[in-house]
TrEMBL record:
Keyword DNA-binding attached: yes
PROSITE patterns: OMPR_PHOB, RESPONSE_REGULATORY
Record feature DNA-binding region, as residue ranges: 124-219
All residue ranges annotated as the OmpR/PhoB-type domain in the record: 124-219
Modified residues (4-aspartylphosphate): D51
Keyword Phosphoprotein: yes
SUPFAM superfamilies: CheY-like
Organism: Micromonospora fiedleri
Name used for this protein in its record: Response regulator transcription factor
InterPro entries referenced in this protein's UniProt entry, alphabetically: CheY-like_superfamily, OmpR/PhoB-type_DNA-bd, Sig_transdc_resp-reg_receiver, WalR-like, WH-like_DNA-bd_sf
Length: 222
């Protein structure tokens, strides 16, 4: 899941980003409304965690423009004011959810995860291919009943390939969906991650390389 945090309180923004990354999400951070607006419309994010009172462009305007653009991006609005009137106003602007400060981090994570599920086409709760079973909610992977230990990035790549159901997924798409904006676009990290993932998943191979196009899940004989 790709998340953008737009929050001018740097310590809070960085703490949210660190926590979400520990949950396996790719997270970018903007500390003002102008840069947050630009990032939100350049990259397709699943969820934008958006502070309402921002320097530069106000969070209300960013929220309204995202809602009117027709993007699948979901908005979780944060604000220091938690009155009913403020919540109603935020939701009327197009926010998908609203969380007053201070908040419990576990609640923030649960809300981001719920919004992320709404931002992408519906996928089965458990992803399967031959004897491979991946449970995104529990972040578990087994093959032939045996657990497979994967890093967050390996798990993210595997989920993206399984959700594509045999369609080719390019390196650029994987880089955008699994890594954050700090990753060098010319890096070989996707190729290296797929290579390690193949090794961990074992034989017969479940991931194919489509030369010049990307990767897809292999057809495994029944």
């Amino acid at each position: 899941m790709r998340v953008l945090v737009v929050e001018d309180e740097r310590h809070l923004a960085d703490a949210i980003a660190r926590g979400l990354r520990k949950r396996g999400m790719a997270v970018d951070v903007a500390y003002d409304g102008d840069s947050g607006h630009e990032m939100a419309f350049v990259t397709r994010y699943d969820v934008v965690v958006l502070d309402r009172d921002l320097p530069g462009m106000h969070g209300d305007q960013i929220c309204a423009e995202l809602a009117s653009s027709g993007a699948l991006t979901r908005v979780l609005m944060l604000t220091a004011s938690g009155t009913v009137a403020d919540r109603v106003e935020g939701l009327q602007l197009g926010a998908d959810d609203y969380l007053p400060k201070p908040f419990a981090f576990d609640e923030l994570v649960a809300r981001v995860q719920a919004l992320g599920r709404r931002a992408t086409p519906a996928a089965p709760p458990v992803l399967e291919l031959a004897d491979l079973v991946v449970d995104p909610a529990r972040r578990t992977t087994t093959r032939g009943g045996a657990p497979v230990e994967l890093t967050n990035k390996e798990f993210g790549v595997l989920c993206e390939l399984l959700k594509a159901r045999g369609a080719v997924v390019s390196s650029e798409e994987l880089l955008e969906r699994v890594w954050d904006a700090n990753t060098d676009p010319f890096t070989t990290i996707v190729r290296v991650t797929v290579m390690t993932l193949r090794r961990k998943l074992g034989d017969p191979p479940l991931i194919e390389t489509v030369v010049g196009a990307g990767y897809r899940t292999a057809e495994v004989p029944a």
